[in-house]
Design brief:
The protein has helices at residues 4-13, 21-24, 49-58, 67-70, 73-76, 92-110, 118-125, 134-138, 140-143, 164-171, 177-192, and strands at residues 82-84, 126-130, 148-150. The chain has 196 residues and is mainly alpha-helical. A three-stranded parallel sheet has the order 1-2-3. The radius of gyration is 19 Å and the shape is globular. The relative contact order is 0.10.
Length: 196
């Protein structure tokens, strides 16, 4: 069984795959369909995904995880939940600290109208996933244990499979069973509304 995304990625990453996805496979059914929606602020000068990609390339560093916070979107839509998927988490403690510092030191002069500190928006409305990031897990309390989700990323190339259990055991060797349960199961269940 294959999924389209990882096969499209493989074809662009590897010169010599042992099969040709188009020639050697036949689709016989779709088991899941995941709707994806991309939205931008009304003020963005883009109307299509291609225009957005061109804008990002022309303006490196201008669009980031922080854009959702500093733009005021999370104030206007307090029920909106945002997931940073497959970006790992080791960078988050520093990033949250830097955003808070910028907000506290330059918030008024920069015109930020946010009601909360960036780290408080993160705790209220943002989540982050990781695949193999023991540094991030070691710093889980700086990020917020309730906002982290482990992923094996199976069957993609970045997956820890078939060693996923070893990776989780390594990452959580000094963690409480409660932290391990939250990050490996309960947080995702709470976000997506299923039983852990």
């Amino acid at each position: 069984m294959f999924t389209g995304a990882n096969n499209a990625i493989s074809a662009s990453l590897y010169k010599h795959l042992p099969f040709d996805f188009i020639r050697d496979t036949v689709p016989i059914g779709m088991f899941t369909e995941v709707p994806n929606m991309m939205v931008v602020a009304n003020a963005m000068p883009v109307k299509t995904v291609a225009e957005f990609i061109d804008y990002c390339k022309a303006n490196p560093g201008k669009i980031s995880f922080a854009s959702s916070i500093f733009s005021g979107v999370l104030d206007r839509f307090p029920e909106l939940q945002i997931v940073s998927a497959e970006n790992n988490i080791g960078w988050l403690p520093y990033y949250l600290q830097r955003m808070d510092r910028a907000f506290e030191r330059q918030g008024i002069s920069a015109g930020f109208a946010n009601k909360l500190k960036p780290s408080e928006y993160f705790q209220r409305q943002m989540w982050a996933t990781y695949i193999d990031d023991y540094v991030g897990v070691a710093n889980r309390h700086f990020i917020g244990v309730d906002k982290l989700m482990w992923s094996s990323d199976y069957p993609h190339q970045a997956s820890t499979w078939p060693h996923s259990q070893d990776v989780v055991a390594r990452d959580f060797k000094d963690a409480s069973p409660e932290d391990r349960f939250k990050i490996t199961r309960a947080n995702a269940a709470r976000l997506y509304g299923f039983d852990a």
